[in-house]
Amino acid sequence: MPDAQYEKLDEVEKLPFNYGHFRRLLGYARPYRRKLLLVTAVITISTILRLTEPYLLRTMVDIGITGRQPRVITQMALLWLLFQAIGGLAGYVRIRILNDTGTGIIYDLRRELFDHMQWLSLRFYDGRPVGSMMSRVTNDVEAINNLINSGLVTIVSQSVSLIGIVVVMFVLNPRLAFMAFLVVPPMVFAIARLRPRMETGWRNVRKANSNITANLNESITGIRVSQSFCREGENIRRFDELNDSYYRTFMQAIRIEWLVWPMADVFGVVGTGLVVMTGARMVMQDVLTVGYVLAFIDYLWRFWEPINAISRVYSRVLSAMASAERIFEYLDTKPEVLDSPNAVEVDDITGGVQFEDVCFRYDEDEPYVLRDIDLTVEPGQTIAIVGPTGAGKTSIINLLMRFYDPQEGRVLVDGHDLRDVALASIRRRMALVLQESFLFSGTIAENIRYGSPDATMEDVIAVAKAVKVHDFVAKLQDGYEHQVEERGGRLSVGQRQLISFARALLRDPRILILDEATSSVDTQTEATIQEAMHTLLRDRTAIIIAHRLSTIRRADCILVIEDGRIVERGAHAELMASGGPYSQLYRRQFAAGALPAGE
Ligand code: UTP
Ligand code: MG
Q1: Looking at ligand 1, which residue's alpha carbon is closest to its atom 18?
Q2: Residue 140's closest CA among 122, 119, 117, 156?
């Protein structure tokens, strides 16, 4: 994979915290707002109860011990126990509800993302490594759960605690409180200064993570090629680089926290020192009791706990925000190929196909791969497309399936511009066998039935017989129930192709499109398939990218494509007689012994 495919890490930049994304993220919590309100209430109650502890301590010291009233000591101890018990219960409720909500939000988000990606146009998929797309649906969604499960609890409980403590401290003694909070403004200032670096840091961690998945995916998929070319060492080196980059970005992001926590501690100690000094003097002046000062210092320590906790969680929020940004980027990508608002539903088609002056390129900054393509296929005709590699044959099919829209000209089926009809209603009547056949994990029967879930087993067997794959399947131990591994592993390429062929035929399409791969099927099978095809193609329109003479000779019309243009068209005999490009191609490709027996 060229390194350009990997996501580039950002330089530190001062981006404003994206409140839009944050609000949008909160939107996902909306369906759970009752539960979340309940959690907030529970957390608030238990936090307030915990806040009474220093005051219980003060009462115990000042009244119980100093005033020698053992009953007060017992009362305070019992109250403390009770509050602890309630706190424990609250903790249980909190964990239960939050797990439920967090997982629920992951579920919703993943589904939305997956649904959306199913509709995205091929152009979207063209330029992105599979692993990096996977990473968004897995890791990035997970990061958001993290935020909700632990981040939210911390933020809610610690904010409540913080507010409570500040209020209590000012109520207890405004002068001491003022001393204690002298250190807060410089601290807030320091954290605000560090924030942009933290944000960039976490965004980079997510990118580095996604690069690892992208590399992993390709390494696993391409392992055969890697091993055959002895690229293991090089692969390990590349992976090390990415792994290293993750290590570095993570350490960079977390390094700022190493600064933040001790800094908070230092500020805390300074604040406490000020309070101890002022408090001691006030006790000596008999303005305050020892119990008050003790309670106050206790509160002060508790004051730093939420500050610490929130600053720690802050990095998690930033990390989740980076993930949210990546998820929203996908969600905001509009499918390019989209039914127009007044798209016509087509009930049935007869199978006429027309290209009118079509020009097409895959990317705006790349040259055209198809130019001025004009062609008309009458319903029921078989058209063969031939031409050298890279000529644009598959691209024609990509337009006919409307995987892409042409930049110029129109593609019509039964006289309807593909851009004006409900795509599904047309695709329903078309079937495509790709150049590289793809099978899904599942049984052979499921794969054949992929586009026609309602087909009966008899139908499945009938098409399998027609494409001569039945004998092979019947010999398998579990026949049609045989499990095909991912991407059709454990089946030969030819077998996979025949199964894809059966899958297309089972749909009983009006327009059958075949992108034949060269020589995946032996000549014997080929001949029998041709026999079957003859019948099968009789009342369908067929557009076949052909590499075999037998297919080509039967075609009503042969199109010769070179360099994105149709350079010649006509029936086999005609083209041979004219001595043009086709006859030359024919000689080069077929005359040198590649002719199937009997041709
Ligand atoms: P095609 O994929 O249409 O060629 O690519 P083809 O005629 O079917 O070739 P074979 O016989 O299967 O090998 C036509 C041109 O479009 C470019 C290719 O680089 C090629 O030059 N192309 C193809 C893209 O730019 N992007 C793609 O996703 C596919
Ligand atoms: Mg091709």
Answers
A1: 390
A2: 117
Tell me the per-residue pLDDT of 75-104, one tens digit each, with 9 for 90 and over.
999 999 999 899 899 888 888 888 888 889
Helix orientation angle between 152-172 and 174-181, rounded to the nearest 10 degrees: 130
- According to the model, what pLDDT value does residue 3 have? 56
The confidence score (pLDDT) of residue 598 equals 38
The alpha carbon dihedral of 584, 588, 591, 594 has a sign of: negative
Among 305, 57, 318, CA closest to 160: 305
| pLDDT of the residue at 592 | 55
DSSP 136: I
Residue with tokens 């691209």, as numbered in its chain: 395
Q: Answer whether 390 contacts ligand 1 (Cβ < 6 A).
A: yes
Q: Which residues contact 470 (CB under 8 A, 6 or more apart)?
A: 461, 464
Long-range contacts, stretch 488-496, CB < 8 angstroms, 24+ apart: 488/437, 488/438, 488/439, 491/439, 493/437, 493/517, 493/520, 494/520, 494/521, 494/522, 494/525, 495/469, 496/437, 496/439
Which two structure tokens, joined as six digits, stand for 74? Answer: 């017992």
Ligand 1 contacts CB of residue 393 (under 6 A): yes
> Which atom of ligand 1 approaches the CA of 122 most closely?
28
Nearest to 356 by CA among 375, 377, 384, 337: 375
Ligand 1 atom closest to Cα of residue 393: 7
Question: Does residue 308 register a pLDDT over 80?
Answer: no
CA distance 239 to 174: 59
For residue 569 the two structure tokens come to 């068209």
Spatial contact of 36 and 53, defined as CB atoms under 8 Å apart:
no
Q: What is the 3-state secondary structure (H, E, C) of 490-552?
A: CCCHHHHHHHHHHHHHHCCCCEEEEECCCCCCCHHHHHHHHHHHHHHCCCCEEEEECCCHHHH
Q: Dihedrals φ, ψ of 563, to 5°?
A: 50, 40
Task: Report whether pLDDT(561) > 90.
Answer: yes
Beta bridge mates, 215: none
Question: What mean pLDDT value characterizes the chain?
Answer: 85
